[in-house]
Design a protein that fits this description.
By secondary structure, this protein is an alpha+beta fold. The chain contains six helices and six strands.
Length: 255
């Protein structure tokens, strides 16, 4: 019988003081990372929702831009939706991701290779804590233990939070950056207007799609809607008559 060295032993952790947390927060903010400390004793003076966003603190490029992903430590994400039980197909996907992550940890020792679980709870009406706990319990029962994931402890990785519903500040910054760069625009169409647009296109035998009515709207009109507090969505401002081509590691060229 093979004996695992160190089995049953736990590494002692240094005590974390408020001063240590403040230094960690400052360092992560300078690096453009995010620290989830809602369950700790320290809180930021203001949240993103309470202040005007002017200069988003986001990385200027994708982390793997210019690199061959197959030569980098793999970070494999499994993102279950907490709207029910874990499905067999989901368990299969989690297994493959876990295996690739574990191989990566052997191929790239002391790297950030990891099996990451991020809860996809964007459907707030159907998502429940009970379903989330059930899915996580099923993964544990299968032995698919995650390296990073949702927890009531302080996130020390700088990559959290691991629930989509808790990552709003990150996406607000990204959306604001795209707006400032002219790569996105605000659309103030109501659900009723979108349904009417779809019905008219279907009646005319045209594949339903957004007609871009707010794409090049005058700034004065946009400011008027903002002053009235009208809700809006942020849409990508894809160049007209263009073709988007993506080089995917798995599927190759996707257009």
């Amino acid at each position: 019988q093979q004996k695992v060295v160190g089995a049953g032993l736990r590494r002692s952790r240094p005590k974390i003081s408020s001063n240590t947390l403040n230094l960690l927060i400052e360092r992560l903010q300078k690096e453009g990372k995010h620290l989830d400390i809602r369950f700790g004793a320290t809180q930021l003076a203001a949240t993103l929702a309470d202040q005007e966003i002017e200069k988003p603190q986001l990385p200027p490029v994708f982390p793997l831009q210019g690199k061959n992903p197959l030569e980098c430590p793999p970070r494999m994400r499994f993102a279950p939706s907490p709207t029910g039980s874990l499905h067999v197909g989901g368990a299969r996907t989690a297994l493959y991701n876990w295996l690739v992550a574990k191989k990566g940890q052997m191929d790239f020792p002391k790297s950030n290779s990891a099996f990451v679980v991020r809860i996809e709870d964007t459907d707030l009406a159907r998502s429940t804590k009970e379903s989330e706990q059930s899915v996580l319990a099923d993964l544990q029962w299968l032995g698919l233990l995650w390296d990073e994931g949702p927890s009531d402890k302080i996130d020390m990785t700088g990559c959290g939070p691991y629930r989509q519903s808790e990552r709003g500040n990150i996406y607000l910054q990204a959306a604001e950056k795209l707006l400032q760069q002219g790569k996105a625009y605000r659309c103030f169409c109501t659900p009723e207007e979108l349904e009417e647009m779809k019905a008219q296109q279907e009646a005319a035998g045209i594949p339903p799609r957004y007609d871009g009515r707010w794409r090049d709207a005058p700034q004065e009109e946009i400011n008027k809607m903002l002053d009235q507090g009208k809700p809006y969505t942020v849409r990508f401002k894809v160049p007209e008559n263009s073709r988007v081509v993506i080089e995917d590691v798995i599927r190759g060229t996707v257009a």
